[in-house]
Amino acid sequence: MAEVVIVPDREAAGALVAAEIASLIRRRPDAVLGLATGSTPLPVYEALPAALAGVDVSQVRGFALDEYVGLDPAHPESYRSVIRREVIDPLGLDPERIRVPDGSMNGIEHHGDDYDAAIAEAGGVDLQILGIGTDGHIGFNEPGSSFASRTRVKTLTQQTREDNARFFDSIDDVPLHTITQGLGTILEARHLVLLAFGAGKAEAVAGAVEGPVTSSLPGSAIQLHPHVTVVIDEAAAARLGGADYYRYAFAHKPEWQGL
Ligand code: GLP
């Protein structure tokens, strides 16, 4: 099962995951990072410059999870812009080595296959950062997504458009379609690190970690993966039946294990 780490706050989560990423890049300078967007991974990105002090990041590669379809890539809320602003520029990564799915309409029917091929060519993702939507989506794999799905175009639920309206002037500006790594694509990453904060995520987290494995809650796909770390605050952990055991297990974690 997933290792669940309950931390006091976002900053503690950011520091923990940033340390793991720094350790990965020290071991493997051309590590392939799976990058998520949304609010959740921001504490990780904020903690990374300090964690990576003195580490050569010039060879680091990365693949974003998803992108809006039909949104101008120069729009400040395109995931291409977000990854540039939150990750590439502050960390000094080589923009040529960081890819975001191509959400342009021209040839959109092929962009998913091209993206999966590029991930395979890079040797797969070493560490995939994940958030989770209030409806249980990961990437933009909305409820009902196949566990075998590959990178492809998905239609957003109204709930997700409402959740993401805060990044736009109005909900009408939130694109209807996205291109997202599939659940099958995500499950091929070697280590999944799912973060969640706040009471609004408690139900989705409980479903993902302890609920039945069902495409109705795409985050539950993590139960099929052999190496998953779930890093959450107390509020997001509130609905977990096994919280006491998770705390106990983490407190007694063998030092050699790492995350
Ligand atoms: C977004 C992203 C997901 C993200 C999720 C939660 O729309 N496509 O990758 O994990 O929904 O978002 P947030 O972290 O802002 O709560």
Structural description of this entry:
There is one protein chain. By secondary structure, the chain is an alpha/beta fold. The chain has a single domain, classed as Rossmann fold (3-Layer(aba) Sandwich), CATH 3.40.50.1360. It is built from eight helices and ten strands. The strands form two sheets. It has a seven-stranded parallel β-sheet with strand order 1-10-9-6-2-3-5, with helices on both faces. Strands 4-8-7 form a three-stranded antiparallel β-sheet, covered by helices on one side. Helix 1 (10-27) packs across helix 2 (42-51) and helix 2 runs parallel beside helix 3. The protein is globular and about 55 Å long. The protein starts with a strand and ends in an 8-residue tail after the last helix. The mean pLDDT is 97. It binds 2-amino-2-deoxy-6-O-phosphono-alpha-D-glucopyranose. 2-amino-2-deoxy-6-O-phosphono-alpha-D-glucopyranose binds at residues 36-40, 65-66, 131-133, 139-140, 160, 164.
* CATH architecture classification name: 3-Layer(aba) Sandwich
Strand percentage: 15-25%
CATH topology, which one? Rossmann fold
CATH class: Alpha Beta
Instruction: Please tally the helical runs, counting DSSP H or I stretches of 4 or more residues.
Output: 8
| Distinct ligands | 2-amino-2-deoxy-6-O-phosphono-alpha-D-glucopyranose
Number of strands: 10
Q: Provide the residue-averaged pLDDT.
A: 97
Helix proportion: 25-40%
